[in-house]
Structure formats: structure tokens, C-alpha cells
Design a protein that fits this description.
Elements (H helix, E strand, L loop, with lengths): L1 H8 L1 H13 L1 H5 L3 H18 L4 H4 L2 H9 L4 H6 L4 H18 L2 H13 L3 H16 L4 H29 L14 H24 L5 H13 L8 H28 L14 H16 L5 H20 L19 H12 L22 H7 L2 H20 L1 H8 L8 H15 L5 H19 L3 H11 L11 H8 L5 H24 L2 H5 L6 H11 L1
Helix pairs in contact: 2-4, 4-6, 4-19, 6-19, 8-17, 8-18, 9-10, 9-15, 10-11, 10-12, 10-14, 11-12, 11-15, 11-24, 12-14, 12-24, 13-19, 13-22, 14-25, 16-17, 19-22, 20-22, 21-23, 21-25, 22-23, 23-25
Keywords: Ion transport, Membrane, Sodium, Sodium transport, Transmembrane, Transmembrane helix, Transport
InterPro entries: SLC13A/DASS (IPR001898)
Subcellular location: Membrane
Length: 540
């Protein structure tokens, strides 16, 4: 037994050593660039999926194995680790740091919950709406970490009020074996807790910067198909906003039926508010009052927030000339240009009003480098870079073309069936592996498959990118799940049951989108010239 325990304790180290050694015959017996690239790809993918080493460290594997096996030069691999999307992310993190530092996120969340009211169903919907909105601009993890303490304060007020009500009742209903006054109180806690992690996931789908997987897709797609020019902030937003809204309502209905019951009238009920609802509303108002009047830094942050969004939308809207048409040279300015410019200005603009002040440092900026450094996800940056390096190796070595040829037997399937299979496969794998790692492994394979079957690559890549975010059935599926689980209101069985329904809703809505409004938006019914050019170039 001791030996088994020691082996289990050292399982990650054993995996790190044994996987490269056991696969080493592949490049040695077949000494060609395809087999060498496949070796690097498999080793990196196993490290990512097993998390035997940190994700960022595993992403560095191509940086030394590609040069050693002669797939890519060291300088060529290094250039893949810092791309345009890295600058885009850095600018967004500057804005997120300002939002967090000056509590603008808390003001938005509390205000939206105050509008929704304290009836359980509407309270859940209010929290979901504010979480979706915040998650559009901040990371899913940060949003969940911000909103859960506010939700927990409301839930604790609900529990305390329920205990008081039960003690005042001539026939006490309090449950002696639980921290919750009644089973219904427990159901409300479960519903509200899970709704926040699901809403964070939904909100992350809406913008190209909403979650790291969207950025990975955008950069890999633009890298593989540089002539496409179809994926930008505006087109992604137009496609994904209806998906998020439909998912939001269906998820709310699903959670409401699962935990609160289908018969309860929750939306337009005219019933008089209960004592508990009034106290919950009072608690929310007290939290909002603690913030005080809106401050100067909050106003500046809000202006930058609106300005960044407007400039992203109007850069190249498609139906009218964008502001980039004012410049003589085309193709030089991207969403990252706007993001970095406004992020840079936040380091310069004073956080105090420009007239004389008694503050010790009236010229202190909106954010400092420490504020930025605290939020900047460098591990994700390196992980994304590792994905680009793998994709570059697959392209140069010819491995992607070889994979495409092996997938030719699927040519008899209609495009919707191929897309559905990709969605189901990706959403299943991502329950046990990290979202960025799963997508990084699958994108090159799905691209090669689409080119081989002469399907518009966007027909499979966009749904797969969205479905990789639906790892919502287990606490290990993504960090927001783990945060919500840590509060102790839900059990794993609750997450599996509720998450399975959300997973099905997500796949259904994404498939609906790609088969309806996605077709005219991205011209999905035809095999585009930019994919044809990539196919011809790759085969030469």
C-alpha cells in the first residue's frame, strides 16, 4: 500500500518523464518533419490535458523541442509567442484594473440587482444580467470573484431572516440538521450561486476579449487565414450577442424550474413583498449606500469604457466605412491599437480632479503598473503563444495536411453534422481539461478537417470555440465553477445536474445560430477563396 501511495503522489512527475520517453520511437523510427511535429504536439497536448505541469510551463515545450527536432528555428518559434492579441489583452486588462480599483463593477452590479428586486426568481435574473454584462469586459474568473461576495451577503441576510421568522413562528419550521432555515432557502442559495458561474460563462462569449478562448480562436484563425478579414470585434459581437441573450433566458428558466419550481410566478407577481424580501432589498441598498456618490475616477473609467467599445465597433463595421478609412495606409490599425492607446492613457490621466487638491499626490494616475500586473494573466499569454507555435509547426511540417487526408472518410457527412460532432466532442473534453488547452489542440485539427471537406472553416471553428466554454458540470471545469463551489451552497451532484442542462442549451443555441443568422453574416454556405488559397498553398 505504501508503494502505491508513493506512486500516486509522484504520478505527475512520472507522467512528465514517461510520456516523452514512450513516444520517442515515433520521430526516431520515422525521421521526417511530420512525425517530429506530431511528437511535440502529442507531448504538449498530454501535458495540457493532464495538467502534470502548469499550463504556461507546458506551453513552452514547443519552444525547445521544435528547434531540437529541426521543425522550426528558435527565432521563428519565439516570434509566435507574442502576437497582436497579446497587445489587445494588455489594453483590456488596463481598463479592467481601473474598473476594479475604483469599484465601478460593484456599483454596476448592485444597481442592476436593485432594479431587479428581491423576489427569488427576479433576484437570480438580476444577478445573472449584471454578471453577463461585467463578464463581457472582464475575465470570467474576475467577474465571479467580484459578484459572489455580493450574492453571499444577500444570501446570508436571507438565511438570518428565515431563522428569525422560524423562531417567531408558534410552530418552528427551522431545520435542525442544516444551516438553512428551510429546504426552499437551500434551493434559493443553490440557484443563485450556480446562476453566477453560468452567467459569467455566457457573458464571456459576447466579446472577442471576453474570455481567453475567444482570443485564441481569433489569433489562430487570422494567422492561418490572413486573407479572411472577417473576424473582428463587430462581427463577433453581432453573431454572439443573440446567442448570449437566448442562453441567458433559457438558463434562467432551467435553473428556476430545477431549484425553485416551474409553477412559481416570479416575473410580474403583484403579491405584496414578504418581510424577508424587504430585508434583502434593504441589505442591497445599504451595500450601495456604502459606495457613496459616484466619484471622478469612476466617471473617467466609464468614459474610457464607452470610448473603447465605440472605437472597436466603428473601426471596420462592414456596412459603412469605418474610421480606419480616414488613413491613407490600410490594414495597419487593429482592435489592439485602440486597446493599447486607451490603456496607456490610464497610466497618465490623474485620478483626481484637475484643480487644486489637498491630496498628498494630486497627480497620482488612474492605475499604476502594480494594478496592471496584479490582473495581467501572463500564464494565458504564454499558453496562447504555445498554441500559435504548435499551429506554425503543423503548417510548416505538413502535419496539418496529413491530418486532413486522414479525415477524408467524413466527406459524406453534411456540414451541420460535422459541426455538431465537433461541438459535442469539444464540450465533453473540456469538462476534464482546461478550456484554452482543449481549444488549442482542436483548432488545427478542425481547420484541416474543414479544408479537406470543403466546408467554410468558420462553420466548425466558431461553434467549437463557443462550446469549449461549456465546461460547467464539475468544479474543475473552469475557475468560476471552483469559486462558486468553494462557498459551500452546492454539491457536485447539483453542478452535474444543472450543468448538463446548461451544456445542452449551449450546444443547441450555438447550432441554431450557425445555421440561421451565422450563414449570411459569415457566408457559411460557400467555401471561401481565402480558405481555398490556404488549401492550395498548403498542398504545394
Amino acid at each position: 500500500m505504501d508503494l502505491i501511495k508513493k506512486i500516486w503522489t509522484a504520478r505527475k512527475l512520472i507522467l512528465v518523464v514517461m510520456i516523452p520517453l514512450s513516444l520517442l520511437p515515433l520521430p526516431l523510427i520515422h525521421p521526417c518533419s511530420e512525425s517530429s511535429c506530431a511528437y511535440v504536439l502529442i507531448v504538449t497536448a498530454v501535458y495540457w490535458v493532464s495538467e502534470a505541469v502548469p499550463l504556461g510551463a507546458a506551453a513552452l515545450v514547443p519552444a525547445f523541442l521544435y528547434p531540437l527536432f529541426g521543425v522550426l528555428k528558435s527565432s521563428e518559434v519565439a516570434s509566435e509567442y507574442f502576437k497582436d492579441t497579446t497587445l489587445l489583452l494588455m489594453g483590456v486588462i488596463c481598463l479592467a484594473a481601473s474598473i476594479e480599483k475604483w469599484n465601478l463593477h460593484k456599483r454596476i452590479a448592485l444597481r442592476m440587482v436593485m432594479i431587479a428586486g428581491a423576489k427569488p426568481g427576479m433576484l437570480v435574473l438580476g444577478f445573472m444580467c449584471c454578471t453577463v454584462f461585467l463578464s463581457m469586459w472582464l475575465s470570467n474568473t474576475s467577474t465571479t470573484a467580484m459578484v459572489m461576495p455580493i450574492a453571499e451577503a444577500v444570501l446570508q441576510q436571507l438565511i438570518c431572516t428565515g431563522i428569525a421568522d422560524s423562531l417567531e413562528d408558534s410552530k418552528p419550521k427551522i431545520r435542525r440538521d442544516s444551516q438553512y432555515p428551510t429546504n426552499r432557502d437551500h434551493m434559493i442559495c443553490k440557484c443563485l450561486s450556480l446562476s453566477i458561474t453560468y452567467a459569467a460563462t455566457i457573458g464571456g462569449l459576447i466579446t472577442i476579449t471576453g474570455t481567453s478562448t475567444n482570443l485564441i480562436f481569433a489569433e489562430q484563425f487570422n494567422n492561418r487565414y490572413p486573407e479572411a478579414k472577417v473576424i473582428n470585434f463587430g462581427t463577433w459581437f453581432i453573431f454572439s450577442l443573440p446567442i448570449a441573450l437566448i442562453m441567458l433566458m433559457l438558463t434562467w428558466i432551467w435553473l428556476h424550474c430545477l431549484f425553485l419550481g416551474c409553477k412559481e410566478t416570479c416575473s410580474l407577481s403583484k403579491k405584496r413583498k414578504t418581510r424577508r424580501e424587504l430585508l434583502s432589498e434593504k441589505r442591497i441598498h445599504e451595500e450601495y449606500q456604502k459606495l457613496g456618490p459616484i466619484s471622478y475616477p469612476e466617471v473617467v473609467t466609464g468614459i474610457f469604457f464607452i470610448l473603447m467599445t465605440v472605437l472597436w465597433f466603428t473601426r471596420e463595421p462592414g456596412f459603412v466605412p469605418g474610421w480606419t478609412s480616414l488613413f491613407e495606409k490600410k490594414g495597419y490599425r487593429t482592435d489592439a491599437t485602440v486597446s493599447v492607446l486607451l490603456g496607456f492613457l490610464l497610466f497618465l490621466i490623474p485620478a483626481r480632479k484637475p484643480w487644486p487638491s489637498e491630496e498628498e499626490d494630486p497627480l497620482a494616475p488612474m492605475i499604476t503598473w502594480k494594478d496592471f500586473q496584479r490582473l495581467m494573466p501572463w500564464e494565458i499569454v504564454i499558453l496562447v503563444g504555445g498554441g500559435y507555435a504548435l499551429a506554425a509547426g503543423c503548417k510548416v511540417s505538413g502535419l496539418s495536411m496529413w491530418i486532413g487526408r486522414q479525415l477524408e472518410p467524413m466527406s459524406g457527412l453534411p456540414p451541420w453534422a460535422v459541426t455538431l460532432l465537433a461541438c459535442l466532442l469539444v464540450s465533453a473534453v473540456t469538462e476534464f481539461a482546461s478550456n484554452p488547452a482543449t481549444l488549442t489542440v482542436f483548432l488545427p485539427i478542425l481547420s484541416a478537417l474543414s479544408e479537406t471537406l470543403h466546408i467554410n472553416p468558420l462553420h466548425t471553428l466558431i461553434p467549437a470555440t463557443m462550446c469549449v466554454s461549456f465546461g460547467v458540470m464539475l468544479p474543475v471545469g473552469n475557475p468560476p465553477n471552483a469559486i462558486v463551489f468553494s462557498y459551500g451552497h452546492v454539491q457536485i451532484s447539483d453542478m452535474v445536474k444543472a450543468g448538463f442542462g446548461v451544456n445542452l442549451i449551449g450546444v443547441f443555441v450555438v447550432m441554431l445560430a450557425i445555421m440561421t443568422w451565422g450563414e449570411p453574416l459569415f457566408h457559411l454556405s460557400e467555401f471561401p477563396t481565402w480558405a481555398l488559397m490556404r488549401n492550395i498553398t498548403g498542398s504545394l
